[in-house]
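Deviations from the work plan: none for this task. Representative record:
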Amino acid sequence: MLCCWPGETKDGAAEPSARAFEPVLALLEQFCPQVEVLRPGAYAVAARGPARYFGGEQELVGKLAEAAGQAGFGCRVGVADGLFAAELAASSSPDHQIVPAGATLEFLARQPVSVLGLPELTVLLPKLGIRTLGEFAALPAGQAASRFGAEGVVAHRLACGLDPRPLAPQPPRLDLSVQQAFDPPREQAEPVVFAAKALAEQLHARLLTRGLACVRLQVRVCNADGQQVSRLWRHDGLLSALAVAERVRWQLDGWRPDSERPDSERAGGERARGAEPPDEGISGGGITLLQLVPDQLVRATGRQLGLWGDAVISDQLARAAIRVQAMLGHQAVTFPVLAGGRSPADQVLLVPFGDADLPERPADRPWPGRIPAPTPASVYQVPRPAVVTDQGGDAVSVTGRAQLSAPPARLAVADGPDRAVVSWAGPWPVTELWWDPARTRRQARFQLITDDGRAWLAVLTGGRWLIEASYD
Amino acid sequence: MRYGDAVLSGDSMLPVLPALRELLPAGGLQRGSVLTTGCWGLLPLALAAGASASGAWSAAVGVPELGVLAAAEAGLDPDRLLLVAEPGQDWPQVVACMLDGCDIVILRPPDRPPAQLRRKLEAVARRHGSVLIVVGGGERGAVRPGEHSEWEGAQVRLLPVRQEWVGVGAGHGRLRARKVLVAADGRGAGARSRECWLWLPAADGSVRPVLEDTQQRRPDQEAVSAG
């Protein structure tokens, strides 16, 4: 088993969206045809076949890393018996780690219990004197189950180098796949994604009536030229129809040949802010067939939803949002997520409906120097240029020691009229990210109130005045 | 029940913040109605805040600069907010979709819609029992009191008439709060015109009425005494 973490792109920025990992997947498929997507950015393949072909696990890993490096991704590879150990090997080493065959148990035994990723056990076990997985695995399985419950059973199996769930008797082989043919072929991705949601609902209904869940979902797409792309996605009975449709979208997006991608997408740049071009055509004469095949059927054991507190997205709302996305594109409908930061624009991250991105700057930190409440009601996505002058008509400036050249007297926003400044506060100097020359910012902020009663948040940076936000 | 667990109280009415109750003829947002609020600002967000706190979903269409943090401070739950920043040419369809899915839709139309289209959207809001809050387009000052040409079919029209920021002097202090005189009138049951001074926002970003005896005091002191 092998697990690959193409963690970062060339410019070192964490990828905002799962779709950016599609090129990695294409690259992996050159080595091993069957790639399982654990989650965007983490992939597993069965290593035995390719290792034999390339002349050993070491050689395979070397070739993989080289190819990833050429494509501009950093990657970490771990090889071990079993998925959990392989993932651990990949994530715990700076680049590559190969656990020799048969040595996986020893490798696991050395790991601290925190690697299980179960917060409760991570705290509880060390208090009981159990610090490593080896010590935990030494407990009898029955005792672990009675003391720690279902979570403990999974943890114990992982610590013993087993798969998290015991082998389930194979349910009868049924063909539960669903498909939809498109005639005429669809040139755009959106109608296909729209159909995928209906198909996924159909598939889930079929599985449900038989009491089954699928561990993996295979999405097969054929186009008019006869090419087909099929991909496996981790499902575990947890994906909603909406989430399945998303994965179809990622797959279709990744299918576009590299030359058709816009530059911003290749660089993994500012897409969350709506720089996405309208839906582009799909090469090869359009899509003729979409098929969803459930893989590895298991008995559905259900899952427990939170009793209170979750903002549940009703089907009705999801339908409305998807319809708008089908009209305007994936990025058009967004969820705001509060993030940390000092300027009002930094404090909100817009996540496309259906994606799950966590802000890289958490909101629950102090952020000294942030703009205090009340916060502005209008935050311009692109700050508007402004001219701030003093009584004599000269532009107001701030020295390196935050000394003002003269009190601001007049403000003209963008192409608007020139207004008198009746009161003002500032300058509040901020130097952010001084350790990163590419992203560093030196700014001085002001609050200005003009004679029409409006309040503005102005920022002076690099000798230019910008209006970041308006308070009314 | 159609609205499921979304909003439990009052089938035909969405709650609003206590400070805004007096301004609205029914004391809340009547499902299926249309409101206008003048230019973009905190007022439309404050209107949606009360319902959001009780579980209603809101969508904002055509307002790319919406200050989510200000909305959260006013009481609007950002977890129950959808944004369609650039609805483009098809904005009426987008609004119709959102009226189907959400309880409150805040709309800033890119241009002044023809009467037929306005009536159509009013009908959609009535059919789905959702509330449409229309924000005037263009720059501030384009609409003056008494000149409500933006959306004739609106049942309630709110308009900030006067405003005054406090807390900033000449080079010292910082913005603390804003006193706004909001005027309301409308059609039918809402025809009686009302006026009300509000802290919009108060020192902590929330929305509360300006109490007569504390009008001269500093807002941060009031926030302490009221809290």
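DSSP finds 13 helices and 17 strands in chain A.
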